[in-house]
Amino acid sequence: MASSSLHFSTPLRSLYSSPSLRRLPRIPFQASLFSPQPTTRKTLALSTGISGVSGSDSGRFCWRAKASMAGTTTEKGKGKVEVFNSEEDLSVSLAKYTADLANKFSKEKGSFTVVLSGGSLIKSLRKLVEPPYVDSVDWSTWHVFWVDERVVPKDHDDSNYKLAFDGFLSKVPILPGNVYSINDALPAEGAADDYETCLKHLVKSGVISVSTATELPKFDLMLLGMGPDGHVASLFPGHPLVKETERWVTFIKDSPKPPPERITFTFPVINASAHIALVICGAGKAGPVHAALGDGQNSDPLPVQMVSPEGELVWFLDKDAASKL
């Protein structure tokens, strides 16, 4: 393979110890015949002290919350909140949001760095593998990372990589060398060290941008889900890792949610992002959503309340997840 900014004529192992670059075969994809359907936005009068916004193009209502987010170091507010009538409507809007950012960054700097999480997020990205996006997005500019990963083989059902590959990556022509999975042959601590080394190499080579405020890696878009306990990535309520500030990538061996061993980005790296989309569906997550976006104050904020990027934060909620607001 000819060398380029991400394709090396010699193995990555020669550039730094323990490579995290994993090249996998591309699987042909037959695009769906169905394209996203337009929806209509509704104007709602809210009794929560939050101002409504009306429009004409999506089956949702949205508002900008007034209060500041607890547990953050700067006064950024809670971001833009969009609530959709259904998960289907959410997926349509999320695809457009992601594709628009991909096109913007690809034109500006020739690349698009996007970070995925596990859970139901990949399902919510399904519209990206359908027309018009599967044919119009410049997939060659994408560089894909994981905000956290379970320390299991890549073909294991618990693997976030496998989830993303089966539901998304295998259906779009992203260059295999631009997909950065963990080294699943290493134990948790080694896998975290290895992934951080990989990120540092990609920052040095200019693939990943750098925050001028913190000098941390600044990803173009981070797509986060949230657990029913309010955790994001593998940062769980009450766990010491939520306060980690030195490492870019760290590890956990006692995850309260199985499997117990994982690696995860830390909050400083998460919050250095240019854009974060928090994608949350289901009534089982309404409590943490209310804790984060409601009018109450938490003395001990949930991890989701600690998400506060340098750039834009957008909450994508279905009506069930927003039912307590």
Which short descriptors sum up this protein?
hydrolase, 6-phosphogluconolactonase activity, Rossmann fold, Probable 6-phosphogluconolactonase, three-stranded antiparallel beta sheet, eight-stranded mixed beta sheet, alpha/beta, 325 residues
Protein architecture, described:
It catalyses: 6-phospho-D-glucono-1,5-lactone + H2O = 6-phospho-D-gluconate + H(+). Its EC number is 3.1.1.31. GO terms for molecular function: 6-phosphogluconolactonase activity. With 325 residues, this protein is of the alpha/beta class. The chain has one domain (39-318): Rossmann fold, CATH 3.40.50.1360. It has seven helices and 13 strands. The chain has an eight-stranded mixed beta sheet. A three-stranded antiparallel beta sheet has the order 6-11-10. Strand 1 (52-53) and strand 2 form a beta hairpin. The radius of gyration is 19 Å and the shape is globular. The N and C termini lie far apart (53 Å). 43% of the residues are buried.
Please tally the helical runs, counting DSSP H or I stretches of 4 or more residues.
7
Helix content: 10-25%
Distance between the termini: 53 Å
CATH architecture: 3-Layer(aba) Sandwich
Q: How would you characterize the largest beta sheet?
A: 8 strands, mixed
Give the ordered list of helices and strands. EEEHEHHEEHHEEEEEHEHE
- Rounded to the nearest angstrom, the radius of gyration is 19 Å
CATH class: Alpha Beta
Q: How many beta strands in the DSSP annotation?
A: 13
Structural class: alpha/beta
Poorly predicted runs are 1-76
Specify the overall morphology.
globular
Strand order of the largest sheet: 1-2-3-13-12-9-4-5
The average pLDDT value, as a whole number, equals 82
Portion in strands = 15-25%
Number of folding domains?
1
CATH topology: Rossmann fold
